Amino acid sequence: MIRKLIASAALSALLLLPTTASAAPNTPEWEALVKAAKAEGKVEVILSGQVPQRLRPAFAEFEKLYGVKVNFQTGGGNAHADRILAERKLGRFTLDVWLGGANTALVQLYPNKALARFDELLIDPEVTDTSKWFQGKHHYTDPEGRYIFTWGASPTYNIAYNTKLVDPNEIKSYADLLNPKWKGKIVSWSPANQGTGASSVPMFMNPKIGEEWFRRWATEMNVTIVTDARQGAEWVAIGRFPIGMFGLNTQAESLKDQGFPIKDYLPHPMAEGEVLSSSAANMMVMDRAPNPNASKLFVNWVLSKAGQTAFIKAAEKMDSLRTDTPKDFLDVQYRIQPNANYIVPFSDPEYIDKQDEMLARMKKIMQDAGYR
Q1: How many domains, the chain?
Q2: Which end of the chain has fewer CB atoms surrounding its CB within 10 Å, N or C?
Q3: Are 243 and 364 part of one and the same domain?
Q4: Do 49 and 138 lie in a common domain?
């Protein structure tokens, strides 16, 4: 009787324990993968860009869970891509996974067939279930939709403002920024700049905003264009300009944290929709990876609920495209809101194909308006 009571109490205690955020599949295929990955013992990863480099603390969870070491390198994408392609010509394959921006991969790795297909790598039902992902699908940045997996994104904010000079309720749409009241009172990076294209090009292609808005903004509003984002944000912070646009928000956030009367985003979404930017929240796996099983295990963990939760905790300013990850530790401006209207350029083939063309058209608009 005593033994039965002890066993019953133990079972009750176990049932009351919190469950893990994500459970690995209990299948022979998965068990074989874990065993083979442990035998390889490591996965070689490149972290290219600010967001990927912040992910380093998250790798400890993977290493503890599976006993596979994550070795990583940082640095610029072009140099890494040049080295990878040079090594491949010699028959050397030293890299497994790349976490970083898509541009280098699209220009160098993808055309040279250096990337592996994700549909051959994803085996965890929790990952392959697209109902758990934003818009009910996996998001890819490559034209074929199978090589460059976009795992995260956050709203892009194009407007910073001086809190003493602007009532944010006066700006609820991009049309409001064409109000003559703001003429001569906007400082901005050029929307035709390559660095601002991730937000300006989707706006240009959005029929609710479009080319006509940019033409009027450039010709009617007497905008002051700067090449130094810090200078533009400081001018907003000290009240020289009430409004800052296109590329000033990171510096505006820094000044806000220092106590200046500046806000780096509006407290409400714009009526025409907000742009989601993936920044460098992309993942690629190398074709003929030296540690194929460890790579496959790593990728499935990264895209699981547990992996994505660890990633967005480490990244701090990037939300997951999984819809079931907790978000309470993310500041509200970085969260993907379930009912908001978003423009999603990074997985839009038209955007991928026409980005350079749209930037050239915006550059022409700016030049015609007298801007260099």
Answers
A1: 2
A2: N
A3: yes
A4: yes
- How many Cβ atoms from other residues are within 10 Å of residue 88's Cβ? 19
Q: Is residue 326 part of a domain?
A: yes
State pLDDT tens for residues 280-312.
999 999 999 999 999 999 999 999 999 999 999
Mean pLDDT calculated for residue range 82-109: 93
Q: Render pLDDT for 201-231 as a digit per residue (tens, 0 to 9).
A: 999 999 999 999 999 999 999 999 999 999 9
User: Residue holding tokens 């700067």?
Assistant: 226
Does the reported pTM lie above 0.70? yes
Range of the domain at 245: 158-265+354-368
In terms of domains, do 71 and 113 share one? yes
* CB burial of residue 141 (10 Å; 0-12, 13-18, 19+): buried
Characterize 333-365 residue by residue with b for buried, 16 or more Cβ atoms within 10 angstroms of its Cβ, and e for exposed.
bbbbeeeeebbbbbbeeebbebbeebbebbbeb
Q: Which pLDDT score, from 0 to 100, does residue 7 have?
A: 42
Q: What CA–CA distance (Å, rounded) separates 310 from 287? A: 26
Q: What beta strand segments (E) does 176-221 contain?
A: 186-188
